[in-house]
Amino acid sequence: MNDTPGKRAWMCLLCGWVYYETLGLPEEGIPPGTPWENIPDTWQCPTCGATKEDFVMEEL
């Protein structure tokens, strides 16, 4: 498993949407390479509205 910040993926347990740190989420102001820890705690899944607590790191 790659646990290097900036090169991980986080999957929403509710809908399966994946945040890839290498891609970021530019349309929401999160640049590529942004580690999961640097995303605001108030951020929500763009698909289902889940909170960061509902995400798990996935092996790439």
UniProtKB/TrEMBL annotation:
InterPro entries: Rubredoxin, Rubredoxin-like_dom, Rubredoxin_dom, Rubredoxin_ET, Rubredoxin_Fe_BS
Listed cofactors: Fe(3+)
One of the GO BP terms on file: alkane catabolic process
Residue ranges crossing the lipid bilayer per the database entry: none
Cofactor annotation comment: Binds 1 Fe(3+) ion per subunit.
Metal-binding listed as a keyword: yes
Sequence ranges assigned to domain Rubredoxin-like in this UniProt record: 7-58
Residues annotated for Fe cation binding in this entry: 12, 15, 45, 48
Entry-linked Gene3D superfamilies: 2.20.28.10
Record Pfam families: Rubredoxin (PF00301)
GO molecular function term, any single one: iron ion binding
Keywords recorded for this protein, A-Z: Electron transport, Iron, Metal-binding, Transport
Annotated family: Belongs to the rubredoxin family.
PANTHER family reported for this sequence: RUBREDOXIN, RUBREDOXIN-1-RELATED
Role this protein plays: Involved in the hydrocarbon hydroxylating system, which transfers electrons from NADH to rubredoxin reductase and then through rubredoxin to alkane 1 monooxygenase.
Name listed for the protein in its UniProt record: Rubredoxin
Phylogenetic classification of the source organism: Bacteria, Bacillati, Actinomycetota, Actinomycetes, Kitasatosporales
